[in-house]
Amino acid sequence: MLIDSHCHLTSGELIPRIDDVLARAHSAGVTEFVTIATDLEDARRALELAARCEGIHVVCGIHPHESGKACDGWDAALDELVRREDVYAVGEMGLDYHYDFSDHATQQRVFRRQVELAAEVGKPIVIHCREAHEQVLKLLADCPRPPNVVFHCFTGSEAEARQILDRGYWISLTGVVTFKRADELREVARQVTEDRLMLETDSPYLSPEPVRNVRPNEPSHLVHTAACVARARGISLAELSARTTENTRRFFNLPRR
Ligand SMILES: [Zn+2]
């Protein structure tokens, strides 16, 4: 049994056929889902979906790509949302200096405010970090600390992984770890501290090998990533699944079933 610790079930590519997507996930042994809402509108859609379907847990925040579009009063609205019992974390949030869809000052301001909010309400945060490793670590060090911090879709170097783990943060791996040229990332997968590792699809993006050409990606494909990480760590798929499932439950403080 697996939990997809980061997917976007409300994305336009998945929501029109969500019942089939969830049925295929269940057949593959992926029975719970942390769906990430990337702005306030998306949060309403995610909460609606979670109310209708079993096993869906909502996280909401302002994605760095959306930070330029955050309206006046966004932080008060988000504050209200993340205090809800059925919202498990704040995110995804962070800095994306690769696409640069929002200017750096705005990204930093919106990121910082969300870290403060999470620390205030005592909920974990989900970090999106692209070509901004140093800046993200620095900002986190300057802010009050939320209970748990995960670098989602980690694709950095061994040295960057080490810095993240040394600070007590978590690492979550996507299908990128299965890609042919991802030897260094598989080395990271081997080394991540056992109790701070999670797995995710980041659906609808980043389909893993051997279904890399299948679009959109969906939670059922998590099994390929799990098999790859189990091989890298030299343990059975069952053992790896039990561990990452338990980790995900603990990170987000998900209800025990
Ligand atoms: Zn995401």
SSE layout:
Layout: E1 2-7, H1 18-27, E2 30-37, H2 40-52, E3 56-60, H3 74-82, E4 87-96, H4 104-121, E5 125-130, H5 133-142, E6 149-151, H6 158-166, E7 170-173, H7 183-191, E8 197-199, H8 222-233, H9 237-252
Zinc ion binds near residues 6, 36, 92 and 202.
Q: Approximately how much helix is present in the residues?
A: 40-55%
User: What is the tally of helical segments?
Assistant: 9
Rg estimate, integer Å: 17 Å
Q: In CATH's first tier, which class applies?
A: Alpha Beta
Instruction: Say which molecules are bound, naming each kind only once.
Output: zinc ion
Runs in which pLDDT lies below 50 for 5 or more consecutive residues are none
Average pLDDT value?
97
Under CATH, the topology can be stated as: TIM Barrel
Strand arrangement within the widest β-sheet reads: 1-2-3-4-5-6-7-8
The description of the largest β-sheet is: 8 strands, parallel
**The number of domains:** 1
Task: Tell me the overall shape.
Answer: globular
Structural class of the helix and strand makeup?
Answer: alpha/beta
H-E order: EHEHEHEHEHEHEHEHH
Q: Report how far apart the termini are.
A: 12 Å
| Fourth-level CATH superfamily | Metal-dependent hydrolases
Architecture per CATH nomenclature, i.e. the level-2 architecture? Alpha-Beta Barrel
Q: Give me the count of strands.
A: 8
Q: How much beta, percentage-wise?
A: 15-25%
